[in-house]
Design goal:
407 residues, 2 domains, six-stranded mixed β-sheet, two-stranded antiparallel ribbon, 8 strands, disordered N terminus, binds zinc ion
């Protein structure tokens, strides 16, 4: 697709949004430059929504309908008479707390997870054997934990292995927006990490194996090693260049996926631009690989499911604002000695410089943190749920089409 040609916002570097510079690389724009650019955008920054302060309805993105948050299930208030309990009742209550605690730990990565309304049967625990009044007295504040496992389809000869790559991390914050006082209001690095944690838990519930290029908000090549083996590290970078640093970092991520023998690589990003205009989502893929068709299929699925899920959260783009599924040859990737014609994460081998990923995959840019409306969606539980659900459904549909075969 080439809907980007219809964009009428200024694009100093042709059509590539800022964020793509981070998983490709450019010599002409350092992160410190970008930071100062962003700090100068005070009008934008002043309105920056802050994830922890945001409440649905308080500053809805323009064009979206106000909608109340999902009801949080609560146990009934305890009644005075339930405070008189037999020893048996107390034991039952203790068992209940133990049971729910174990469940809570088992779901350790469910941090920030927004549960979808579920028609699945209730969790089979000791809780079900305790009469309602005692249940309320024992654990008035505990919420039900959804531990429902989804069986793998019979066509799968083994569990799929998915490599999730939340972009950026550590010093590299990805796209960030700041309050007037310079405090980050929203950082891509953390946004995509939280999405990845949520997605990892959901895929594991489906019996998938998941490997993450990073589990925390750090770089993958945290020690600054020469990972791609070209004899160069960040120490060899010219001023204002992150070339070697980025090459080693991206190679670290590719290596994580390759070492895990993953079936699919999902690089998770949030977009950003130097002005607040651009909005929406896009997916990028590399055609020029042995599995180029599968790359295109996954990029197309990710796009379609983002569109579907965001629409359910009242985020609907006019057709002319759809950014589309984009082959990376249309991106304005700076080339040095014609080495880089593709994004490194999904691109082919560059002898002596890049060892390619061995599996299909795509790069997803889910909304623009630089756009006020998009940023508000990114900040809400509903918005994040839509994005993570889109990833989940795209991955599931991909493997329904290409069931994993025994290795
Ligand atoms: Zn990014």
């Amino acid at each position: 697709m080439s809907d980007w040609r219809k964009d009428n916002f200024p694009r100093p570097r042709a059509r590539l949004p800022l964020d793509a510079e981070d998983w490709s690389w450019h010599e002409d724009r350092t992160s410190s430059q970008r930071e100062s650019d962003l700090n100068n955008r005070t009008a934008l920054d002043r309105e920056a929504p802050r994830a922890e302060n945001y409440r649905p309805g308080s500053s809805r993105p323009p064009g979206t309908k106000s909608k109340s948050g999902r009801p949080v299930p609560r146990m009934p208030k305890s009644r005075p008479e339930t405070q008189v309990r037999s020893k048996g009742m107390t034991l039952a209550g203790t068992l209940l707390i133990l049971g729910l605690t174990v469940l809570a730990f088992a779901g350790g990565k469910l941090f920030g997870r927004v549960e979808e309304p579920s028609t699945s049967p209730p969790v089979e625990t000791v809780a079900q054997t305790v009469p309602a009044p005692q249940l309320a007295a024992a654990a008035p504040e505990l919420k039900p934990v959804d531990e429902t496992r989804i069986a793998l389809p019979a066509t799968f000869e083994r569990p799929p292995i998915v490599c999730l790559d939340p972009g950026h991390g550590g010093e590299d914050r990805g796209f960030a927006r700041f309050f007037e006082n310079g405090i980050p209001a929203m950082e891509e690095s953390m946004l995509v990490l939280e999405q990845a944690w949520d997605l990892e838990a959901r895929l594991q519930q489906r019996g998938y194996k998941v490997v993450m290029t990073r589990e925390t908000d750090t770089a993958v090549n945290v020690d600054g090693r020469d990972v791609n083996g070209d004899g160069r590290t960040a120490a060899h970078d010219a001023p204002r260049s992150n070339r070697n640093k980025n090459l080693d970092e991206l190679q670290s991520r590719i290596n994580v996926c390759n070492t895990a023998d993953a079936d699919l690589l999902v690089s998770m990003h949030v977009n950003g631009y130097s002005t607040g205009g651009p909005h929406g989502f896009e997916t990028w893929f590399t055609r020029e690989r042995p599995f180029g068709d599968r790359n295109a299929v996954f990029a197309t699925l990710a796009y379609a499911h983002l569109k579907e899920q965001l629409a359910k959260a009242d985020y609907v783009l006019p057709a002319e604002d759809e950014r589309g599924v984009l082959p990376d040859t249309t991106a304005d990737v700076q080339m040095e000695h014609s080495l880089f014609r593709h994004f490194i994460m999904t691109g082919p081998e560059v002898p002596g410089v890049v060892t390619a990923s061995k599996m299909p995959g795509a790069i997803v840019e889910a909304l623009f943190a630089s756009n006020d409306g998009d940023a508000a969606v990114l900040s809400t539980p509903e918005g994040r749920n839509a994005i993570v659900t889109a990833y989940e459904h795209a991955i599931v549909e991909y493997f329904e089409r290409y069931p994993p075969e025994a290795k």
